[in-house]
Amino acid sequence: MTGGGGGLHRGRVTGRPGGARWWGGTGPAGGGSHAARAGGRRGVLALVTLLAVLAAGGVVAALALGGEEPAPPTAAAPPSPRPDAAPGAAGETGTTDPRVLQQTLDEVTAEAPLRFAPDTATPTPEAAAAVDRLAAALRASPGPTVTVEGHTAPVGEGGQRAVALSEDRAAEIARRLEAAGVPPARLRVIGVGSARPLASLEESRRVELDVTPS
Q1: Quick check: 35 and 24 in contact, CB under 8 A?
Q2: Residue 198: how many other CB atoms lie within 10 Å
Q3: What angle do CA 175, 179, 182 make, to 5 degrees?
Q4: Residue 200 has pLDDT above 60, yes or no
Q5: Which residues make beta-bridge pairs with 115?
Q6: CA-CA distance, 105 to 147, in Å (whole number)?
Q7: Do residues 180 and 135 touch, judged by C-beta distance below 8 A?
Q8: Torsion angle of alpha carbons 50, 52, 56, 58, nearest 10°?
Q9: Nearest alpha carbon to residue 134 among 182, 97, 175
Q10: Do residues 132 and 123 lie in contact, with contact meaning Cβ atoms separated by under 8 Å?
Q11: What global pTM score does this model have?
Q12: Is 155 exposed, middle or buried (CB count within 10 Å of its CB: 0-12, 13-18, 19+)?
């Protein structure tokens, strides 16, 4: 049916109190379906809502993943020095306790005694190598005075020259300790001669180091 001046209406009309409603056709004035337009608006609204939710979720995820920049690690404080520690060269440990220093020197000379060939003030190669270790211990433990005590054998090195030879041996060890960095003022040189021999002649031809208590 053709209306006066209006477009062709398709679909059907359902009557309701208060007016009619069009379903599935073209509107009376050339417009589209009311249901299609309403559905389009709902679709757009749903899309906008979904995008808003996704955007909000992205912000939360970014915050969760990023977080705050971690603070740099705090450097550990260096350990406090022991009360009996004393400065020394790199890798050296020392003490101001004369008993501890004496024990250290005794351990070195027990492994490599300061011995000499008969009737000479030249130390054996093993004794010369031990001087560096003894000097390192003394440098790391400044303070106590050390007596460098020379000895001779009771046979072959006795007599009037024994004391002079023993003193020469002590002076040679002291000279080498000084060359390795030990202050001369810390070293006291004496010669005992053959007054205190050990079990053998070889062991008797020696130099000992004695720490003087403060």
Answers
A1: yes
A2: 14
A3: 90
A4: yes
A5: 206
A6: 12
A7: yes
A8: 60
A9: 182
A10: no
A11: 0.57
A12: exposed
Tokens of 118: 């008969």
HEC-encoded secondary structure of the chain: CCCCCCCCCCCEEEEECCEEEEECCCCCCCCCCHHHHHHHHHHHHHHHHHHHHHHHHHHHHHHHHHCCCCCCCCCCCCCCCCCCCCCCCCCCCCCCCHHHHHHHHHHHHHHCCEEECCCCCCECHHHHHHHHHHHHHHHHCCCCEEEEEECCCCCCCCCCHHHHHHHHHHHHHHHHHHHCCCCHHHEEEEECCCCCCCCCHHHHCEEEEEEECC
The pLDDT tens digits for 57-90 are 554 444 344 555 555 555 555 544 444 444 443 3
Token code pair at residue 104: 């250290």
Contact 212, 199 (CB under 8 A): no
Whether 22 shows a pLDDT value over 50: the answer reads: no
- Tokens 């390795």: give the residue: 180
How big is the chain, counted in residues?
A: 214
Distance (Å, whole) CA 95 – CA 98: 8
Integer Rg of the chain from CA: 52
